Request: fold
Amino acid sequence: MTKITPAKQLANRYSRVADQLIGLFEKTDDTIARMATATALLHHKMPHYFWTGFYRLIDDQLVVGPYQGPVACAVLPGPDGVCWACVNRKEAILVRDVEAWPGHVACDARSKSELVVPVYNSSDSIVGVFDIDSDQLGAFTEVDLKGVQRIVQLIK
Reply:
C-alpha cells in the first residue's frame, strides 16, 4: 500500500474544499456571501490557520471583510505590510516569518507566518486580498498557495 504524503493529504483537502465551495456558490453570486463561506470553511478545515479573511480594496484602503479568528485591523491604509505588497505586485505572497518582512503590519502579535492572495473581480481588477495567518513559523507551503489560489478564483 502506498503511503500518502502530508503534502498530498493537504492538496486533497484543498481539492475537497474547492469542490464543496463550488456547490455552495451555485446558490448565490454575491461576492461577500462567497467570501464569508470560503473563509468559514477554510478556517475550520485547516488546522494551521490562525486568522482567515478578506481585506477589500475600497477608496485606496484595505478594509476588513468577512473573516474568522481574533479581532483584525479594521483598515490597512498602506503602503506597508504583506497585504499591500500583494496588491501592488499583483501576485500572491507567502511569508515564512512575518518578523522578517520589512514593514510588517501586526494586527495580532501571535501571527508568525502569512499567505496573501490577490482577489480579482470579473473584469480582472484587484478588489482585495485573501489573507491567512498562522501562529506557527513556516506554516504555509506551495501546496497551500495553489489550493488557496484555486479557491479565490471561484469567488468572482
Observations:
- The longest helix spans residues 6-25.
